[in-house]
Recover the amino acids of this structure.
């Protein structure tokens, strides 16, 4: 594994520790670990592109690491009451929807290419920023509830938009596949019908 993939893999390994820290009320340590993990998401991408280290493994590992980190942190923060459960449900459902669509597309076509949409990248940044802010507010007793309330709606908006765009893409791909399937089963010579 090259350096960017090693950083990404380390981010995946940080997930259970971050969750354990949140559930055990070690919020300050959880905040710093989450912040480092969030920053590493940009670092591995920068190194991979800057030094031509982009690999197929990395293209799969990076979104897996992001989703594992965000879903785990949001679930643990939601369970502990630090962020609203409706936002947790929205974030988790959106990611499950995208992962399911990708899984079925790969299972059917064996031709999945990992190319995240710009809306998805923006959503990931928003989710990371909100998660870090919520952790910091709880860890350092910041009274910024109005800020968190506004930020939660920003996360919700980007989550819905990016999720809807992925659903549109999967729907279009499914429709194209169905049309191709129907064409391949359509007789080419209509005049041959009824002949012996």
């Amino acid at each position: 594994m090259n350096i960017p993939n090693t950083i990404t893999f380390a981010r995946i390994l940080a997930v259970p520790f971050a969750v354990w820290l949140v559930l055990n009320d070690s919020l300050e340590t959880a905040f710093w670990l989450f912040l480092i993990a969030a920053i590493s998401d940009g670092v591995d991408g920068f190194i991979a592109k800057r030094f031509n280290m982009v690999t197929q493994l990395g293209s799969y590992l990076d979104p897996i690491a992001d989703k594992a980190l965000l879903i785990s942190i949001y679930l643990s923060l939601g369970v502990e009451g630090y962020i609203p459960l409706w936002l947790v449900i929205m974030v988790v459902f959106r990611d499950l929807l995208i992962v399911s669509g990708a899984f079925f597309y790969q299972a059917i076509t064996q031709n999945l290419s990992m190319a995240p949409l710009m809306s998805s990248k923006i959503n990931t940044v928003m989710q990371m920023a909100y998660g870090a802010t919520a952790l910091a507010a709880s860890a350092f007793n910041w009274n910024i509830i109005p800020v968190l309330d506004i930020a939660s709606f920003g996360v919700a908006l980007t989550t819905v938009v990016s999720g809807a765009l992925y659903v549109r893409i999967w729907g279009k791909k499914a429709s194209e596949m169905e049309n191709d399937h129907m064409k391949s089963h359509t007789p080419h010579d209509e005049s041959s019908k009824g002949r012996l």
